[in-house]
Amino acid sequence: MPDATPRSVISPIADLTRDDVARLRLVSQRLVPHPVLGLPPGPVEAVANLLAVQAQDLPAAHVAVASRTPGRDAAAVRAALDDGRLVRTWPMRGTLHLLTAADAGWMTRLLGPRAMAAAAKRWLDVGLDDAAFDRALVVARELLADGPASRDELGAAWTGAGFEPGSSTTYRLLNGLATRGELVLGPVRGADQLVVLASTWLPEGSRREHEPDEMLFADLVARYVAGHGPASVADLVRWSYQTTGAVKKAVAVAAASGLVAAVTCEGRSLLGGPDLAGLVADLDSVRAATEGVLLTAAFDELVLGYADRTATLSPEEERLVVPGGNGMFKPVVVVDGRAVGTWARTGSKRDRLVVTPFAGTLPAAVEAACQEAFAALPAALPGR
User: Keywords for this entry (predicted)?
Assistant: First the structure.
C-alpha cells in the first residue's frame, strides 16, 4: 500500500514489523489488558476508546464491547443502551454503529452529510427526496414526543401518513433520518431496539455545533488512531468514509496539537495516539500481553476497522473471513496477535464451539485454549 501520510507532518519514532503492528492493535483496541493501558472500566469507556463500533449485528456488538471490559458482561452493554449512555445509529458508511451518547451527535453531524450524498440516488429511485424525509420527520416527532417506539410502530405511523408500506420503506426512512442526526436507536425491548428522538435522548450540546469542523475532524483522527493504531491515513479514510485530502488535513491539525505519533512498517507510515511512544519503547510488554488465544466477535473492529488488514491476516485469509466479499465478517481466532481461523457457535443451545482453521489443523494446546476462551466469552444477548 502506498504511503499516504505526508512525511513532513510527523517524524516516525520507530520502524516496526507487521507482527509488532498486529500486537499493538490488540493493545490499542483494549482486546487484551496491558500493564500501562489496562482495560476500560465499562462498556461506555470501551466504545469511547474505539469511537464507534460497527453494530449491524447487535448481539455481536454486545460481545465485542463486553470483551474489552474487565467484567466481560454483555448485560452491562444492554444496560448502557437502556439508560441512554450508548446509542446505535448510522454515523458513516451507511452502516449501523454503537457510539456513546456524548459522541453520536457530533459524529453524525460531521460524517453524515457524505453518507447522505452517497445514498441520495438510491433514495430518489424509490421516491424519497428531501421533502419526503422532512415529512417523515414530522410524523416521527409526533409519535416519539411521548417516548421511544418500535420500528414497527414507527413504520405504521409512516404508512398512515401515506408512505409506501413495508419494512424496506421503514428502514430507508429510519436510516435517512438517523444519518441526518434526527433519530437514534436507544433502549431495547425484547429483541427490538426502540427508536428515539436524538434531540431529547442525546446530551445537550453533544452535536458540538459551535466548534469548527476542522477541530472536530482533528479530534476524530486523534481518537481513531489512539483506539486503532498503528493505522494509516488510508485506514482512516476507509473507516470514516471521508476524502484522503480531508483526512490528511485533519492529521496535520491533530499532529500540531501533539495528539498523534507515527511509526513506519515496511515503508508505510502508520499513526497512533500519544501512548504509542511508550508502547513502542517497551515492545516486550506488548508481546507478553498479546501471547495466547483470543476469540473476537463477528464484525469486530480488529478486522473491520482497517483498509489494510494484512498485519492480522493475509488477503487469502481475509476471503475466508468475508466469504465472497459480501460484507459479512465472521468471528476470528487470534493466536499471538495473528488470525489463524474463524469460529462459530453450534448446538441446539449455541453453547458449543467449532473452529475452522485457515489451513491444516491447530495444535492441541491451541484447541484447548480456544475452548477456554469460548467459555470466557460474554453471553450473546438477543437483539436486532
Answer: DNA-binding
Q: What is the mean pLDDT of residues 354-368?
A: 96
C-alpha cell at 42: 465499562
Q: Which amino acid is at 287?
A: R
- Of 96, 260, 78, 102, the C-alpha closest to 187 is 78
User: What local confidence, expressed as pLDDT, does residue 5 receive?
Assistant: 47
How far apart, in whole angstroms, are the C-alpha atoms of residue 205 and residue 209?
Answer: 7
> Measured between alpha carbons, how far is 96 from 228 in angstroms, rounded to an integer?
19
* Three-state secondary structure readout of 344-360: EEECCCCCEEEEEECCC
Taking 3-state DSSP, the helix, strand and coil percentages for the chain, each rounded to the nearest 5, stand at 45, 15, 35
What would the mean pLDDT of 328-335 be, rounded to a whole number?
A: 96
Rounded distance between C-alpha atoms, residue 272 and residue 195, angstroms:
35
User: pLDDT tier at 327 (50, 70, 90 boundaries)?
Assistant: confident
Instruction: Give the C-alpha distances (Å, rounded to integers) separating 95 from 6, 164, 178, 223, 301.
Output: 29, 23, 11, 20, 13
Q: Which three cell numbers stand for residue 9?
A: 507532518
Average pLDDT score over the chain: 94
4: pLDDT confidence band, cut at 50, 70 and 90? very low
- Find out whether 226 and 273 touch, Cβ atoms under 8 Å: yes
Unique residue bearing C-alpha cell 460481545: 63
Q: Whole-structure pTM over 0.70, yes or no?
A: yes
What class, spelled out in words, does domain 12-37+209-286 have in CATH? Answer: mainly alpha
Numbered ranges of CATH 1.10.10.10 in the chain: 12-37+209-286
Q: Does position 383 have pLDDT exceeding 60, yes or no?
A: no
Q: Is the pLDDT of residue 8 over 70?
A: no
Give the gyration radius of the chain's Cα atoms.
Answer: 21
Strand partners, 53: 98
List all residues 6 or more positions away from 333 whose beta carbon is below 8 Å from its beta carbon.
293, 294, 295, 339, 340, 341, 342, 343, 355, 357, 362, 370
Query: pLDDT tens digits, residue range 196-238?
Result: 999 999 999 999 999 999 999 999 999 999 999 999 999 999 9
Cα 223 from chain centroid (whole Å)? 12
Cis bond before residue 230 (omega within 30° of 0): yes
